Amino acid sequence: AIHELSCEAYKHLGKTSNYYWIDPDGSGALGPLKVYCNMTEDKVWTTVYHDLQMQTPVAGNSLEKLSVLQLNYSATMDQISAITSSAEYCEQFISYSCKMSRLLNTPEGNPYTWWVGKANEKHYYWGGSGPGIQKCACGIERNCTDPKYYCNCDADYKQWKKDAGMLSYKEHLPVSQIVVGDVDRPGSEAKISVGPVRCQGDRNYWNAASFVTSSSYLHFSTFQGETSADISFYFKTSASDGVFLENLGNTDFIKLELKSATEVSFSFDVGNGPVEIVVRSPSQLNDDQWHRVNAERNVKQASLQVDQLPLEVRKAPTEGHTRLELYSQLYVGAAGGQRGFLGCIRSLRMNGVTLDLEERAKVTPGVKPGCSGHCTSYGMYCANGGKCVEKYNGYSCDCSRTAYDGPFCIKDVGAFFEEGMWLRYNFHSPGTSMKDLVSRTLLSSADPEITVPDLNLNKEELSFSFSTTKSPCVLLYISSYTQDFMAVLVKPSGNLQIRYSLGGTKEPYNIDVDHRNMANGQPHGVNITRNGRDIVLQLDHYPPTSYSLPPASDTQFHSPKALFLGKVIEIGKIDQDIYKYNTPGFTGCLSRVQFNQIAPLKAALRPTNASSHVHIQGELVESNCGASPLTIPPMSAATDPWHLDSASADFPYNGQAIGDGVNRNSAIIGGRKTIYFFKVFCSM
Question: Is 9 contained in some domain?
């Protein structure tokens, strides 16, 4: 196979939401298909579309008394079946809008309407219900319009009613046909909507077993690979050698093994004498990270590939035996007294069929189902300080101590600020003392193990992005219980200024960035790091610039109190320039604001334990308009489902948003907020 097996595999290559070609049976008989992979959640959604428009009217036929709606998918039924079989969960929305058109004829009649699923089986339940239950969702929830019936439409009202819900018994999906029966009477009308097939997760991709002793093994039925053998799997180990798998015949055999810390061997004999192919890696393979092996043998040649290393190929002899004749069981792990494999093997596929390692491991001594340690290989994808968290099948990224969101902590969390609006984040919770451990830990350092007893900061890290066309204004201000403060301002000229007052000097220390106008409506990134007297400032993607506080200045930020965004509302004396810039306040967008481990905007927009620290004046509207760089590039013609030349233009009606569910860009133009919308199809 030249394409990945699933959307799950693309996600763990670091890919983002888009259309991809997948080949769910690998080298099996099924060809590849194009699907939409939605990577915005912890688990990946795979979506397959069809050509039936939403709210398709159903016309009566007085002769046949049945109307048949056929759904044509962008894939064959066998291809979709391969996706649903390996998925953890699948669903498909279905809706019947009716006016004097009965649906299932509940409570005891023969259904007027049914749908046909996989294997051409008829099904007499509706969305929101389940197999063997002749009910709609309202019948399950006991809230039908007329309680005598189990579907709203079965009450036969002259007004429009609807029965809708998700079909989620994946063994019956997809819906291939709908047969409607009660539309031939005068006044009868009906409309049908069917969403795309959506499946989540890939059980095959994470199907794994851990071999805990060198004599451990799993056994399966004899491998049927007489003329063609295609084997692929992932392994992870700290051992320097061991047998991955082996199957024997009288003299024939096939074997894959780790020969040394840098060598993988594929050997076999079809009656012409043993053949061995070895791939040598320039780096250690026993590094406890996942490595991929692909081995193939047919009548013409044999090949072996490890990770992205060059493919090793061996041509078959022009004469001689070609059939691989095996009779023993297939052993995964140790066999025949050889040193077995110590470590983890997952996603083992042989001729397009995934072997269920987990189920066999549950009843086999010395082998455990699943595998830990995914973060050693995939933790790199948790960006922006996100923490990789081990899970039984896979991993997730914990973004709680970052200013980002999403499965990989790469989605900016930002908001639009109207004029006069402000946000205050108190560094200690209401009713608690300044010695509060959680606040002290988050505030003191990016290292959660370091705390400062009196909340005096020797160093801080501040990062955010913003966009505005109005100046002057206060972007961010950090107050204290003393006279210390820190501020980031946009001066009347549109230039940026960072202002520090840490005591010891009469006037604040100012860093002026005079070479460019920052109030130009474009998003700009600001990163400020202070360690003692040393300050490093980086704007956008320009090289960082170093500054130093004057010798007379203190090097500690004493007793920080609160962080303000948009405007400063603080009791006591405020710096004169900041007071002038404070009116009427900031208008624009702020995004990914983070001060040490505190993310005030995220705390305001995502309910967390830190939300009690936040006070907001005005309406905070979530937006990525301040993201830097712009996180939503324009769709290309190839991926835009509304483009006439798009590969998916034949299937745009399945009621599922194509994008990642995030807002398109908005900007500040002439002091007014302008929102750029993107096109979706709304199923009503």
Answer: no
